[in-house]
Request: fold
Amino acid sequence: VRFHYDQTGIVDAVQMKITGWGEVGAVRNGNTFDVKVERAEIREVETTISATIHSSLYEALRDAGEGPQVVQQLIDVFQWDIDFFELRRGDSFSFVVTRQYAGTDLVGYGPVSAARFTHRDVTYHAFRHEMPDGRTGYYGANGAPLRKQFIKSPLKFSRVTSGFTKKRFHPVLKYFRPHYGVDYGAPIGTPVMTTADGVVVEARYKAGEGNFIRVRHSSRIDTCYLHLSRFKKGLRKGTRVTQGEVIGYVLTEAEADWI
Reply:
């Protein structure tokens, strides 16, 4: 906001710029103000964004001059093939997206239309396609859909504190034993998602596991989510859940045990 004062110290004009919206000007006219509104022109510019990861995906995009809104888009596109908690220095990506401007202000992004992500020397491709019925999805270079039965991780923006292994030094029992799960460290209250479609067969408290949820995906595959602060409201045994749906919230660390 900018104010202009006359020689007597009275405000005789005001100019206000609203980021992503436009400008409002007011000029004194006697005891009132004449107001003029100029809405910013909305425009879209298709662009290609490329970057190499040195510390995190968020920082790579920030260093490329992009806003945080597009981070989640990349994760959503490749979540079935890449565990974003295990990114490495030197991983790289490139994608085509539409930047949305109001005047000169960047206010958002359209959907990613094509992307390439190289992780651990393997390159993944994604192309957005809209079906005749309006549904959209992402497909690989061979035309196969990227969506798979399981997503790579039940949490977003966290870290792996202990991986799946046949031999881990137990922090409490102080000896080596198998660890049939993956532990994620995350802030209290972080949403936990089911990694695939299924039915809740248990949602209760259990000694050693705390509040936990077991989801049955098929006759041979269950996933369990342990050490939760609470369950999603209304979730109980028999509840049908879909891939990516929030089912609970982190207590101190959330585990996804694959059985």
In short: Residues 69-78 form the longest helix (10 residues). The two ends are 59 Å apart (CA to CA). The longest strand covers residues 246-258.
